[in-house]
């Protein structure tokens, strides 16, 4: 599906995102994954030392420390995904386009290649899918607990 005016507006309305240290390190890890998956992705620029603590702890040697630009792009893309209603993300292709538009909007230099947009979109969609699955599991578990409590209290017909 095409980029709607609402989606374009939501990209423009992304503001400074506040994230925890753990979220920043996770974003750096994802950006490091991008570098490994898309070797032609430009990684020039400054690297923030705090971003590499987690990568160094979990890497088995294949991950690179990403540039600050790549980490910021990853954070902004994840923030966009978190900011829109779950049904808004239509498909992988659309999210790849949105991720690219975020890079354009923030005037990322150098501009990420299409391959890196696709990899980041895939990572973000996997995250959305896992969150949705976790929510369904929690909901089912809560429902079972409520049923058990009703049985114990004798209020079930």
Q: What is the first-to-last residue Cα distance?
A: 48 Å
Strand percentage lies at under 5%
Extract low-pLDDT stretches: none
Count the beta strands: 0
Order of helices and strands: HHHHHH
Helix/strand-derived category reads mainly alpha
Overall morphology: globular
Number of helices, counting only DSSP H or I runs of 4 residues or more: 6
Q: Helix amount, in percent?
A: 55-70%
The overall pLDDT average reads 77
Report the C-alpha radius of gyration, rounded. Answer: 19 Å
The description of the largest β-sheet is:
none
Structure description:
The protein is an all-alpha fold. Helices cover 65% and strands 0% of the residues. It is built from six helices and no strands. Helix 2 packs across helix 6 (114-153) and helix 5 crosses helix 6 (114-153).
Write the layout of secondary structure elements.
Layout: H1 5-12, H2 21-37, H3 52-58, H4 68-83, H5 92-105, H6 114-153
Features:
single chain; 157 residues; mainly alpha; 6 helices; globular
Task: Give a quick rundown of the structure.
The protein is an all-alpha fold.
